[in-house]
Every structure is written in structure tokens, then in C-alpha cells.
Amino acid sequence: GAGVSQSPRYKVAKRGQDVALRCDPISGHVSLFWYQQALGQGPEFLTYFQNEAQLDKSGLPSDRFFAERPEGSVSTLKIQRTQQEDSAVYLCASSLTSGGAYEQYFGPGTRLTVT
Amino acid sequence: EDKVVQSPLSLVVHEGDTVTLNCSYEVTNFRSLLWYKQEKKAPTFLFMLTSSGIEKKSGRLSSILDKKELFSILNITATQTGDSAVYLCAGYGGATNKLIFGTGTLLAVQP
Questions:
Q1: Could you read off the pLDDT of A84-108 as tens digits, one per residue?
Q2: Which of A110, B30, B54, B97 is a good FRET partner for A9, with 20 to 30 A between their CA atoms?
């Protein structure tokens, strides 16, 4: 079956521009996560959805970052007034269940470069 | 604060060698430890470990968890050039639903 997909795969934005990153999770997966991965680092948690509810947004670095999953499937991560420090790969992951020990499946990521 | 530490940071071996990658963790309400392989794209799932002392094996890869020492290892035997990648370790705790990742071990297998 289809895995997690993300678009665009690459995005170049000028400093100050707004960007929107899309994630299509595996069909039927309840949980959806966004991670930020800087070069040479492991992914760092941004936010978590269970269906359409955003249960944890503790990892969002500033109020310029906003995520939504209005119908409990596709999710969008929006970054307003991008800064150079926002340059990173943004990974989306989904999981079949919520809570307990479970596997997260990752999409290919969106590489954001802010110039 | 929850953290996961991996060692070594990087490793260069020759084909046929056996390697051991290390992961130590401090995760609140720990439930499981996961290993992923990342080759310039999405991390791909390798193993999830929840119980101490039970080895999980997939082909030339194996992993084991020690919940007393808060430690896991990933072994790769008879390494091949296709094993070259970053190997990520992540802890999952019941206090939150997020994975706490280490910085990864960069493995380079030379022919």
C-alpha cells in the first residue's frame, strides 16, 4: 500500500515568506506527527495529532509555526515569516494507533531552504 | 529532560565486518525503543523493542534492549555497502506520544 507522502519535496523561500508543507499519512492511521531535522541531527518533535485533535504542540519553536489536520487525515504545517534558522527537513510520520508502544512510519520529508 | 545518546557518531568499516551501534536513553515512563535506518530520505523502520533481553533479528541485523541499564545495541553482521546509512535510535515514553531521537550513527561500509 501507499506510504506517507509529503509535498513539496523541496522548497526554497525568501526570508519573510510564508510556506505550507503538506503531509498525506497512511490511510486509516490515527496518529500523525511532525518532526524537524536539522543537518547532522536526529529528528526533533514538533507536534502530534490524534485524528483531527492536536494533542501536543510543545515542540513548535515559535508562534510562527502552525499545524492543522482538519478532517483527521491530511495535515498541513505552516510557517509564517520564515527565518534562516527554519531551514531544515520537515518530516511527517503516521501511526496506526494512539498510545502504547507503536511504530511510526515516515514520509520522505520536505527540505526547506530559507534564503 | 528526556534524552537519547548514540555512539559512535560515525564509523567506517570494510565489507564483511561486524559492527555494533550503541544507544543509551533516559525517557520518562519508557515504553519502547525504536531503531531506524536513514539514507538521505525518510527514516525506515528496523526494530521496536519493548522487553529486556529479547533479541530481535532481521537478516543480518539484530537488536537487544537492556531496560535495567537503559541501553540498546544494534548489530550488523557481514556488512555490505548497502548498509551505509545513518542509524537512528529513538525512545518512546508514555508521558507523551513523541519519539525522542538520538543524533544518529553514520555508518560507511567500504568495498
A1: 999 999 999 999 876 555 688 999 9
A2: B97
DSSP one-letter string for A4-54: -EEE-SEEEE-TT--EEEEEEPPTT--EEEEEEE-TTS--EEEEEEETTEE
Q: What is the pLDDT along chain B (111 residues), one digit of tens a residue?
A: 889 999 999 999 999 999 999 999 999 888 899 999 999 778 999 999 998 888 999 999 999 999 999 999 999 999 999 999 999 999 988 666 788 999 999 999 999
Residues A41, B103: C-beta atoms closer than 8 Å: yes
Dist. CA B85–CA A47, nearest whole Å:
26
Whether B90 sits inside 8 A of A42 (CB atoms) is yes
Q: What are the Cα distances from residue B48, in Å, to B2, B32, B64, B65, B75?
A: 18, 7, 10, 10, 14
Which helix (H) or strand (E) is B12 found in, with range?
strand B10-14
| Closest chain B residue to A104, measured at CA | B45
CB-based contacts of B49, cutoff 8 Å, min separation 6: B32, B33, B34, B35, B56, B63, B64, B65, B72
Residue B81 three-state SS: helix
